[in-house]
Design goal:
With 190 residues, the protein is α+β, with helices and mostly antiparallel strands. 27% of the residues lie in helices and 33% in strands.
């Protein structure tokens, strides 16, 4: 695949994704961007390579950078939040506290899960619907989070978020039991 073909495919995938995340119909994005509905359809189907000006209009209308809209290296987004980057929101002298571990802008149904994963065990998941986001926090052990074939070490105290529309696996490669809390944000039915 040529660089141009890869860029066209990436733009098609990212435009559709960001339009979906923003909840914009084709008509709404056309009105916001000044780009015709027909051109947006052609771009999302990777049937055209739009001008830089058209791409900038679409990125501006979606509220993302042109680099984000064109990024084909990124793949499924996985963001790890080490313990020192979690945000302490409230605390008392006695020791009570709340800490924002990780967040996302996803809309729709939200599920909260408690996980225990014994050494050598794993749980494999098929891709979820587009725009499904998972957030997790490991409280004990070290989770190996595999997203679209790429492993990520998530040690105790670390949080992560990723787009779950690709195959993913929760695996315990260590000798200690993994304890984690996970939230799943499912897109609303359309």
């Amino acid at each position: 695949m040529s660089d141009l073909d890869q860029l066209t495919q990436s733009l098609a995938r990212n435009l559709k994704r960001w339009r979906g995340e923003r909840g914009f119909t084709l008509d709404a994005l056309a009105a916001r961007s000044g780009v015709s509905r027909g051109m947006i359809i052609q771009i999302e189907q990777a049937r055209t390579n739009p001008s830089v000006g058209t791409t900038v209009k679409l990125a501006d209308a979606l509220g993302v950078s042109i680099a984000t809209l064109l990024d084909y290296e990124q793949g499924p987004q996985v963001r790890l939040v080490p313990p020192d980057q979690a945000v302490r929101m409230w605390s008392t002298p006695a020791g009570s506290s709340t800490t924002l571990l990780v967040g996302t802008d996803a809309r729709g149904p939200l599920e909260l899960w408690a996980w225990t994963l014994l050494p050598g065990e794993e749980s494999v998941s098929d891709p979820h619907p587009d725009d499904t986001v998972e957030l997790l926090h490991v409280s004990a052990g070290e989770l190996t989070l595999v997203v679209d074939g790429k492993p990520h070490a998530v040690p105790a105290g670390t949080s992560a978020t990723f787009e779950a529309n690709v195959p993913h696996t929760y695996r315990n490669d260590g000798a200690e039991t993994v304890e984690m809390t996970m939230a799943v944000s499912v897109p609303p039915a359309r």
